Amino acid sequence: MASPIILALIFVLPILYFLIKERRYSSKLPPGSLGLPIVGQSLALLRAMNDNTAEQWLAGRIKKYGPISKMSLFGTPTIFLTGPAANKFIFVNDALAPQQPRSISLILGRRNMLELVGDDHRRLRGAVVQFLKPEMLTKYVGKIDGEVKHHINSEWKRHQTVTVLPLMKSLTFDIISSLLFGLERGPQRDALCKDFVELLAGLWAVPVNLPFTTFNKSLRASAHARKALTEITRKKKAMLESGHCSPSEDLITYLLSLKGEDNNCALSEEEIVDNAMVLLTAGHDTSSTLMTFMIRHLANDPETLQGVVHEQEEIAKNKLSGDTLTWNDLSKMKYTWRVAMETLRMIPPIFGSFRRALKDIEFEGHLIPKGWQVFWASNITQMDANIFHEPTKFDPIRFENSSSIPPYCFVAFGGGPRICPGNEFARIEILVTMHYIVMQYKWKLCCKEDTFKRDPMPSPLHGLPIELEFRDSHV
């Protein structure tokens, strides 16, 4: 066991290093305070997120220090940047690398897109983007349609009351499992889903691997999930080599088929598994959260709901009972997608993120020292009255002409070379799901108190229980 002196040095030396560096660069650093050692402003931010006052907390810092300030978050000196110019600086600057909590890389794997930089990141991201581009996804609309119909028939139809968030998470997991891994419904998919529920619980946990901790349970669930995904990958590789499946069958077979000149596009088994873990995690949480908050908003906004219902009725009336939605149908759901975008603007699933400075860099005359992290929050520009007129008003018409929104102001999907590669995939599953829900049901919220917290994703009170009622002309 490490002695108290060694443990003290482990914590104290990094702090002394950054304090000495801060003093060395004090004249160039932005205003602000690093606060107490290790703790800094971490507890204050986490408390604000839990109370759903994080935007106000950050606004208070901006009022006090301006759009660029220093603080300390999660044990690391941090520069907080805000504004369109700052967003662009963060998203396109090669000197800023992703900075994920250590727990994420330990659980999801070291060769995932969130961790990699340079050529490795471009190679892996390019492979995933090729599979998720619209030309590829058109052929998977029917598969997603089938998963949504099965989910509603099995989880919604026999109940007068349902809890939306866990159901949406279950649905998005099933869709991604089917599309990415080719997993059909059954024990293998159920077991993988169970592992991912435990895995996700520890992504933001303190990375101390002691028995019975959330992090320990998450690591064990990750090991089970990785074993299952590795077996799937090896099985599909054998099928691909024997000609028993096509490269476009699912994401795994597609990634396995990549070779390129001199084999320079080929991905290792570790890279395929690690990025499958990331895509399943990211797609599972963000889309389910967005659909939950769309349903939450539409329950209290009859005018917007009527607009969505009218649009979906126009599509449904030209289809026979049991017909599958098509890519052409989805292209007509413009208003429904604007509702999704406005929901994203007001309640982005990802509150903010971090980058790490790979070298000393400057922004607007202020120094960002090497090794410090940069923090950005999407809501700052998305709720800025100088950018979006009456930002607290829900108005889908804002997105009628997306080109009218200044660059790097709406950043719910990120931006630059690391913009979310699954935008189009998310659009398909959200539009298909909302079509069948609004065509079959009316609903009202069960909780009088309509609040939510962030942990770190936004989560409505009690998971958003709603009372269902069949529409007269449901499909």
UniProtKB/TrEMBL annotation:
Keyword field: Heme, Iron, Metal-binding, Monooxygenase, Oxidoreductase
* Cofactor(s) annotated in UniProt: heme
* Pfam family name, one: p450
* Highest taxon in the source lineage: Eukaryota
Identify the InterPro entries for this entry. Cyt_P450 (IPR001128), Cyt_P450_CS (IPR017972), Cyt_P450_E_grp-I (IPR002401), Cyt_P450_sf (IPR036396)
Cited Gene3D superfamilies:
Cytochrome P450
GO MF, one annotated term: heme binding
Tell me which residues bind heme. C420
Q: GO biological process: what's one of them?
A: sterol metabolic process
What is stated as this protein's family in its record? Belongs to the cytochrome P450 family.
> What's the protein name?
Cytochrome P450 716B2-like
Q: Supply the source organism for this entry.
A: Ananas comosus (Pineapple)
What lineage, starting at the top, does this entry show?
Answer: Eukaryota, Viridiplantae, Streptophyta, Embryophyta, Tracheophyta
